[in-house]
Amino acid sequence: MAQVMIKAYYITPFCYCVLVVIRDVIEGCLKYKRHLSTTSNSQTPNSTVAKTKELSKDTRNKIVDLHQAVKTESAIGKQLGVKKSTVGPIIRKWKTYKTTDNLPRSGAPRKISPRGVKIITRTVSKNPRTTRGDLVNDLQRAGTKVTKATISNTLRRQGLKSCSARRVPLLKPVHVRARLKFAREHLDDPEEDWENVIWSDETKIELFGKNSTCRVWRRKNAELHPKNTIPTVKHGGGNIMLWGCFSAKGPGRLIRVKERMNGAMYHEILSKNLLPSARALKMKRGWVFQHDNDPKHTARAMNEWLRKKHFKVLEWPSQSPDLNPIENLWRELKISVAQRQPQNITALEEICMEEWTKLPATVCKNLVATYRKR
């Protein structure tokens, strides 16, 4: 019995030490497992291993030079402070491609094959109103599953971008011929001739209408905050009609048309404002007046008055507001007025007059200088 007790006395400490070692090993393994789990959870699905710092072009060239000087990879690494595992690939790439530059990386293959790109490009070229959904369905029927975003990115690489279709006047064949005739007659006119033209037109500006687009910086779910909205009412909340003119030297007079425009009123506007505008703009002798072919402008009485006053009138093709550079000035005016947010018709008129006089002469000059590009 005594011998058994003695043996137990000596064996027990040994077993205890073994158990302690096993416990420490198990705890270490569990800690390492938890560390791996935490690291993998902290990385997003799209996360990638950070790219190591790339050697400079000069360092890579030195590696090649030392290799040509019959130095080993280890010696090159020690001399330049670069790992041997980095030196080897640079030397092998130089032997294969005779360059130390970065080679093109292939990256992930395109979802749409070159043939598919040609198909969708040809489709939208034939029918620009084709939707992205239509193209997605076409490719899906051909065995290629893509998203609308992929369609947009692919077409953008081909130089095609989704834009709002421009609204333009409906042109009949007679209008097309008249526009072509106008372009041919004035194609070679020098810039000085266009600088001696007074351009005119009428426009309507609404109090709360869509005079211009307005972009705001806002946070999510703040689209209805008063600072981020544009108040609208039915029919624009009232509007004013304006007549104005300008030349390459700056804006001329701007007049509010308070009653319904007719031939008599148009005659009154020109008789009171055209010649004073020409004098204020210091137009050269023989200046030319431009207005469109609105019936009020081309009435017999109006033409007779212009002839008696010896005003030269620019022959104008119908349905051609895009040829009149004053349309650009109207847009600038409407943007400036909208930014000041007038609250009634009186304020709207006052702001229009103020902003018209602020239009820079350089803007007017540039509009006329680039007229031949229209």
Strands, total number: 5
Shape: elongated
CATH class call of the largest domain: Alpha Beta
- Spans of 5+ residues with little confidence (pLDDT < 50)? 1-11, 39-50
Number of discrete domains: 3
Q: Could you characterize what this model shows?
A:
- This protein is of the alpha/beta class and 374 residues long.
- It has helices at residues 2-42, 57-68, 73-80, 84-97, 114-126, 132-141, 148-157, 173-186, 191-195, 263-280, 300-308, 326-340, 345-358, 361-369, and strands at 197-206, 239-247, 250-257, 288-290, 312-313.
- The chain is elongated, with a radius of gyration of 39 Å.
- It has 14 helices and five strands.
- It folds into three domains: 57-97; 114-157; 177-373, Nucleotidyltransferase, domain 5 (2-Layer Sandwich), CATH 3.30.420.
- Helix 3 crosses helix 4 and helix 12 (326-340) packs across helix 13.
- It comes from Hemibagrus guttatus.
- Residues 50-100 form the Sleeping Beauty transposase HTH domain.
